[in-house]
Every structure is written in C-alpha cells, then in structure tokens.
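Weekly puzzle thread! Below is a chain. First person to post its structure in token form gets bragging rights.
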Amino acid sequence: MDDAGERSGTADLAEQINCHFIFNALNTLKYSVITDKPGACSLIDDIAAYMQYRIRAVCGFEMVFLSEEIRNTESYINLEQARFSYVSAEYNLDDTDFTLPSMSVIFLVENAIHHGLLAKKNGGKVHIKSYRDSQFHYAEVCDNGTGIGEYNSKYPESSNNGIGNLAALAMRIESMAGGSLLVESVSGEGTRAVIKIPI
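Winning reply:
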C-alpha cells in the first residue's frame, strides 16, 4: 500500500471508531474526576464497554441479540448524557430475544441525538422500544427533535458518520437479517426509525 492508501485507510479506521466522540467522552470523564462529580467510575465502565463493542463492529459487523445491543446503547447514551444533560432517554423493551446487525440501534440513537435533539434549545427525548407481532420483531428509535424534513420513505441517503449512513444500515439489515428499515420524519416534530426483523 502506498502512502496515500495508508493515510486513507487510517482515516477510514479513525472515522469508524469515531475518535471525535471518544475524545469528548474522555474529556467529560476528566472533568467529572477533577470536579469530583458522582458517577465518574460508571463513566469509565461505559467508555470501556462502548469502545469494546464498537471495535468489534469495525472488525466486522456481526449478528447480536437485541439485549446485548441495548446494553451497549445504554452505555453510549450515558456518555452523551454526561455531556448533554438536557438529553433524556426512555426504554420500553417487550421483545429482546432476537438478533440484528450490531450497532444498528446505536447508530439510530446517534442520529436521533446529534441530528435531532441537540438542535433543540431545550433538548429532548429519545425513546427506544421493542415489540413483536406474528411475523416480525421490531426495534424502534423515536425522538422529538427537529426532524429531517418532511420524510416518509425507506431511508434517506444522508446522515453519514463513522458507521455509515442510513442507506448502508438498511442494506446491512436486509443482507444480514432479511429485515428492513423504515424512517419517518416530520420537520419540527421528530423522527421515527423502525427495524423489522422476520420471525
């Protein structure tokens, strides 16, 4: 590999690991320790768990049980809440005994927080739900943020970050699990993203 290829590969890896997020999380941890803020030890656990999970995804996306995905989603949200106290989260999990591609829910939560809630002056809430019917398992991420415009389609091509865009996520869900991703959004009201996995 030439120098340009090495630089490109390093940049891609750094983007996938999301170094900017880790840098901010470590700065938040440092501030918590310096100010003797309660919960600093828990933040260390959250950083360790999230990084281990994300690096596994960088090495190759795998199918995981939703229960494992939710544990790491909670670690991610805890780290974001340490930085942005006006972001809240709610969980209603009635069905976690099914598999989906790793980082799926976390990616949707990242988008909800950074493209929806942080744009609101008073923050907002991300709501994570799971349920099932006779044909499908569902994992749903809703937010009451700014939305991504009037949108009702399979998925938008935008919202790129280190794990890829929503279109890439939808393709992973389809190819790895035979499922689908639905995204609905209304400007000023929020966004709803639903992963459907066949039973």
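Puzzle host: Confirmed. Bonus trivia for everyone else. The longest strand covers residues 124-132.
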